[in-house]
Amino acid sequence: MNAPTPHTVHAAQGKPAAGQPIAFVSAEALRERVHAAVNDDHLRSSFRGAMDFLMAKRAAQFPDESELVSLRSLSEAIRQYSLSKLPDLLEQLEANLTRNGVHVHWAETPDEANAIMLDIARRHQAKLIVKGKSMVSEEIEFNHAMEAAGIGALESDMGEYIVQLAGEKPSHIIMPAIHKTKEQIATLFAEKVPGVDYTDNVDALIQIGRQVLREKFEQAEIGLSGVNFAVAETGTLCLVENEGNGRMCTTVPKVHIAITGIEKVVEKLEHVAPLYSILTRSATGQAVSTYFNLISGPRKADEKDGPQEVHLVLLDNGRSQAYADEQLRKTLQCIRCGACMNHCPVYTRIGGHAYGTTYPGPIGKIVSPHMMGLEQTHLLPTLSTLCGACGEVCPVKIPIPELLVRLRGEAQSAPHANPAMVGQGAGYKPLVSFAWRMWARIYAQPGAYKAFSWLASRFRVFSPSRQSGWTVARTPLKPAPKRLRDMVRERH
Ligand code: SF4
Q: Which atom of ligand 1 is nearest to the CA of 283?
């Protein structure tokens, strides 16, 4: 197995990641999805309402602008510092986790990650895996991989449970079922949960879900969770959650598997506090979450609960490729708060499903190309107004608009040429460069410009319908039938 040891992260030179994308929405399908979403008044008003609510809650958490400014700077610095030492921190994390009794695994691709976890499940003859919230497990389509092997994987986060029942993917990284109304959830429960009658009482619906899940926690042989921060100096996995299901997944079954992207490492425990503070406030507008779990190993001999075995799977899936490029590395600063989505005018109008990728919204548009290749995702960076709201709100100051412009350029110049995101100098093309130089000369000489614009409007019918990368996502450029100078002359 070509596992990404810290050395491969050191050595990564921008080469395409191995492995095929497992989720792919074609350009045609993406257009159709966006079109359908934009025309769905109900969906638009639901998302608008939910996002306005979250934006107001976040704003209320930062009444003091100067505190926000300094916390953002501190968080950005911690993330950049952690990434600058990533290979060393990964080695330290592995050593300390191993010392604590945690089994550490490295996976380069989704297939490798699934194979590792399937192997653990088979060794324990598991029939059911109960899951806490984990976007990385969505990224690798863990549920499908387990189900294909005859092992049940049940979501225990309420939102994830609802979308799993509906056979859908999450539409938001923090609130997976935010696109559903309580009436839709009531209908879903009545149809899918045995013995449940229709009720749209929210408390009753939550109790129904809890009842189903409580039994499953006891039955499951394995609990799976994500990781919000992994602390290298102590070998600690930090888990932020609100429902308590994460704690159930990581303590009740006899085996706990945690899965995370390799970028989630920080050096010291003291680095977690500011990140945690800005994460919860940016994500759900909470000062702190209801639960904050610190996991440093399996159950000890004198402890009453906890798993007997703990595993951590560290997934690359294109991250070391992003890491190799100084500008794209900033993508890895993300702490998955979802604030960029809540503030994005495009996400707010089309919702998360229209993107067709695991991570929707602004963050999805900059991380998906690393995971799935720019060939597969070349339209994603165009789903943006470049208004800058995402960059302004990001708690770790990822320059999302800047990265989107870079990806747009690269996608436009060679969307089909590269099997994956390569990311270096792809924007340069001699022909394009020559065309711009000629244009600059014509534009600088009034006589030449006059003649050129006259010719362009006379012969506009010969404008090509395909204009290099421009027409991949836009209508062809055509000179106006009448020049502006002629229209002005006619008026006066
Ligand atoms: S890009 Fe920034 S705002 Fe968006 S999810 Fe990541 S940390 Fe949050």
A: 8
Q: Which atom of ligand 1 is nearest to the CA of 362?
A: 4
Q: Which of 344, 348, 355, 398 to mutate to test the pocket of ligand 1 (most atoms within 8 A of CB)?
A: 398
DSSP-derived secondary structure for 300-325: PTT-SSS-SEEEEEEE-TTHHHHHTS
**Fold annotation for 98-317:** Rossmann fold (3.40.50)
Which ligand 1 atom sits closest to the C-alpha of 335?
7
According to DSSP, the residues that pair with 265 across neighbouring strands are 230
Tell which CATH classification among 1.10.1060.10, 3.10.180.10, 3.40.50.740, 2.60.40.10 matches the domain 33-52+326-412: 1.10.1060.10
User: CB of 443 within 8 A of CB of 453?
Assistant: no
Residue 222's beta-bridge partner residues? Answer: 129, 255
Q: CA 446, CA 485: separation in Å to the nearest integer?
A: 12
Contact 236, 230 (CB under 8 A): yes
With a 6 A CB cut-off, is 403 part of the ligand 1 pocket?
A: no
How does pLDDT run across 134-189, given as a tens digit for each residue?
999 999 999 999 999 999 999 999 999 999 999 998 999 999 999 898 999 999 99
